[in-house]
Amino acid sequence: MIFTAYADGRFDLGDRMTRCALGKGGVVAAADKREGDGASPLGVWTIRRVLYRPDREAPPKTGLPVQPIAPHDGWCDTPGDPAYNRPVRLPYPASAEAMWRDDHVYDLVAILAHNDDPPVSPMGSAIFLHLARPDYAPTEGCVALSRDDLLALLAHAGPGSGVAIAEPPI
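Below the sequence we write its predicted structure tokens.
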């Protein structure tokens, strides 16, 4: 099943439309995506696996692989580093985003297959489907949903499921 995030902030869950947050830099063609541009890459991105913070969330019900995160988990966002766009253990010698955060946006995260097979520097890293802030503030390039909407999506997702980031239909 493919779920669609539209550049105008709508998200098609299949059975209903809901709200989402996308990158503060808008949407760009995947070939034009660059590290740090704040843009969400247009395209269809398979959901690789789901991460959750076990002190705040129960493992979600889903047909996708699920694993807990820990305080030392990070994601390398340094172009040119051998671990670029890969999970790393913190502290890491290059820049890496902490997955264990004080806010709640990474309490539940679906890893999207953008620029991961293999990662190409600097075409963008850490493009996730994660929890939205209460005001649906723009992301750094990810797709963000409410907790209830993300849990609903995951309940319907299985191998081969993905998220399309698209321009709105005319």
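The mean pLDDT is 97.
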